[in-house]
Amino acid sequence: MSPARPNSPPTSPMSVPKFVAAKGREKKLTVLTAYDFVFASLFDQAGVDAILVGDSLGMVVQGKSTTMPVTLEQMIYHGEIVARAASRSLVIVDLPFMTYQVSPTQAVENAGRVLKETGAGAIKIEGGVNQAATIRALAEADLPVMAHVGMRPQSIRKLGSMAKVQRDEAALLADARAAEEAGAFGIVLELIPRGIAAKITKELSIPTIGIGAGPDCDGQVLVSYDMLGLTEGFQPKFLKQYGDLRTAAFEATRQYLQEVRDGQYPDASHSHE
Ligand code: KIV
Q1: Ligand 1 midpoint to CA 126 (Å)
Q2: What's the domain range around 265?
Q3: What are the tens digits of pLDDT across the range 96-149?
């Protein structure tokens, strides 16, 4: 995992302007979620362009059924850990439910706290047309903001299900246009048909980052626990698992339990004379 190895990815830090400039380049942008130091430093050293401290924290780390209970203090706690671990990836922190929806002023105050107290490079909020005034206020305060349209987990009470593909083309295009026009530097497209994602990606001059949005976006984000096969029983169509860490961790744990119970571990080689 040393960044100095031959063929290791570039070590110069990713910034918001560099992230935006990657739009339309041959190489797609890569984004993964992280919530702690171990995974954030691993992804950073592997060369991921951006690390998202997602409010998926509530589901994959805290074991809750939605992202809605996550607090600003929790995002700041995890955001600071991840930002400290990342020496070259752009760190983006989600503003959680009801920390920006009340007013643009509330959003600016809370986004300012996040950037100030975590050292992250940007924040993300969910919404397009409905959050245009807030995106504008954040951008005007020089707080780099990524938008998130399509399936918006914080709006689960209104949308009904997290698994529902969002298909209203006119509304999705309007959301994407509004986010760009208001000053978002990038936009997550979650769970929308690939044709609509391709249309949005072609029209916008900011990078689109897909999750369940097909292959034509400027980049891709996955929840790292899903990508690594750590989460149990979550297998939506869009997800590709690149590892089976849950099985590996389970088997290692079973072996440890057995060796301790049988008196095989610790042995002489693991003991001090
Ligand atoms: O919270 C999160 O992890 C996200 C990604 C799924 C884009 O918003």
Answers
A1: 10
A2: 245-273
A3: 999 999 999 999 999 999 999 999 999 999 999 999 999 999 999 999 999 999
Same-domain pairing of 202 and 249 = no
pLDDT digits (tens, 9 = 90+) for 37-57: 999 999 999 999 999 999 999
pTM: 0.95
Nearest CA to ligand 1 atom 4: 54
Q: Report whether residue 134 contacts ligand 1, using a CB cutoff of 6 Å.
A: no
- C-alpha gyration radius of the chain: 20
For the chain, the domain total comes to 2
CB 94 near ligand 1, within 6 Å: yes
CA 252 to ligand 1 center in whole angstroms: 29
Q: Ligand 1 within 6 A of 54 CB? A: yes
Residues 76 and 179 in one domain: yes
Helices (H), the chain: 16-21, 37-46, 57-60, 72-85, 104-118, 132-140, 156-159, 169-182, 194-203, 224-227, 245-261
